[in-house]
Amino acid sequence: MNKERSSQLTGVAGVHYVAAYLAYLGFHAVPTTRNVAGPDLLVSDLSGSNALSLQVKTTIWAMRTRGRGDQKHSDHYEWDIGWSSAKINHAHVFFALVDLKHFQELPDVFIVPSKVIFEYFKGGNPVTWRRARYHEEVNKIENYKNGWDLLKQALNGPDR
């Protein structure tokens, strides 16, 4: 399988995993048309009156380590975001950063507000940063790990 096809299928796997999990939680989650600008998933409550958008970014294995032998430790997670997505900053747009973990166990999904991603890349330059790659330290992103409650609050919160 060539690399392009493999990365496309990885992305599709992440979108469908997130959609399935959101359905399990009691929300509508509809994948959008692939290869078209815009969100990857449209998500709403069951009445359809409260909605948000998800940008889904998926990798086979996101965890990166540092050190050798007994000194080896978890250091950061890493996803390719893409410059067009990195520029999104809207209260009703979230990122679902999926770590498939080679499906050796259930994937982890980091639910991150678009503002957090936007701030991370704010000083970046597509000319000097060849790729918009998000690599955040473990201790700075762990609070978003499997943070489905953030989406529940956004869809069912008092301001909605």
Question: Can you offer a commentary on this structure?
Answer:
28% of the residues are buried. The strands form two sheets. The chain has a five-stranded mixed β-sheet with strand order 1-2-3-6-7. A three-stranded antiparallel β-sheet has the order 4-5-8. The chain has helices at 3-25, 83-86, 114-121, 138-141, 148-156, and strands at 28-31, 41-44, 51-59, 63-66, 73-80, 93-99, 108-113, 133-137. The chain is an alpha+beta fold.
- Computed over alpha carbons, the radius of gyration is 16 Å
Tally of alpha and pi helices: 5
What is the chain-wise order of helices and strands?
HEEEEEHEEHEHH
**Percent range of helical residues:** 25-40%
Q: How would you state the average pLDDT, rounded?
A: 90
Q: What is the topology?
A:
Layout: H1 3-25, E1 28-31, E2 41-44, E3 51-59, E4 63-66, E5 73-80, H2 83-86, E6 93-99, E7 108-113, H3 114-121, E8 133-137, H4 138-141, H5 148-156
Parallel strand pairs: 3-6
Antiparallel strand pairs: 1-2, 2-3, 4-5, 5-8, 6-7
Q: What key attributes describe this structure?
A:
alpha+beta, 3-stranded antiparallel β-sheet, 5-stranded mixed β-sheet, 160 residues
